[in-house]
Design brief:
Elements (H helix, E strand, L loop, with lengths): L1 E5 L20 E2 L2 E2 H11 L4 E6 L3 H7 L4 E2 L2 E7 L5 H13 L5 E5 L2 E3 L3 H11 L3 E7 L7 E2 L12 E2 L10 E9 L15 H11 L3 E5 L4 E3 L3 H12 L15 E2 L4 E3 L2 E2 L4 E2 L4 E3 L2 E2 L4 E2 L4 E3 L2 E2 L4 E2 L4 E3 L3 E2 L4 E2 L4 E3 L2 E2 L4
Amino acid sequence: MRAVVLVGGFGTRLRPLTSTMPKQMLPVVDRTMIERVVETLGSHGVTEAVLSLGYRPDAFLEAYPDGAIAGVRLTYAVEPEPLDTAGAVRFAAAAAGIDDTFIVVNGDVLTDLDVTALWDFHRSHGGEGTIALTPVDDPSRFGVVPIDPEGRVIEFVEKPAPGTAPTNWVNAGTYVLEPSVLGRIDDGRKVSIERETFPALAADGSLYAVQSSAYWLDAGTPASYLQAQLDIIDGRRTTVEHAVHADAAVHADASIDHSVVMAGAVIDAGATLRDSVVLPGARVGAGSVVIGSIVGSRAVVGQDCSLEGLSVVGHEVELAPGTVLDAARVPQED
């Protein structure tokens, strides 16, 4: 079983954390986002993951020099230019020589979806493609997918105006596709799978979908990236993981409340963390308060600083003692 993993985006919504690295290389509690995605695929029988790369492909090559994650073989397909979602799928599948049924996943989606059940449904219904669906409160931000009683997609409505969506079940970013779909995607230009390919398949009656209420999170924003960490330590995923890494150094007088402290991080005396994430090698100085915020890898928060309102401190940034941040990103980027 083979899968194409879309990891080519610039991750602009997560800057400054993604200013120097792809978002899928950001850590989630104790391992990178891409490792979690590939591990999940491997647990459902995927033996090869084709990474469709664009932004900073070297980061993946350097991180996994043996070409494998959790026993899943990695193949790299580096786009010469951004090709959008369908274009990226076509390019990656061609580069890897995929000529049989395959899986596609968005590399920034963390989910406990039963991929095996999705695969089995697809094989039993005979369509060209099958999409996993998840329910959301605000479907206007997603591709909305109404289906008939047999699971056939009626239409594919990408980001409808608020209040106009025909259902709250949306595209969850995991698909099973036949190789015939690749022939529907023009070569050498940007093609959106959501705006072009799926609507065409739906119009031909060859697109199906499966509704699932399994855990699902698009971890592409600071808020959702933070939420992904807290959901794991809260037990909203399949297993509960330790909030404070064994290799972190937390002073006895520091206060850690509902927060993740990653490997090599240092939390000094009198510091307070609440609903926050401190990435590997970062330091939070004595007396500093970090609430609902993110501190990047090897960043230094000086003494008596205050961070709140989903402030984000970039990697290797040093905040002067007494700095106050509220809903800020440092460094600030255009």
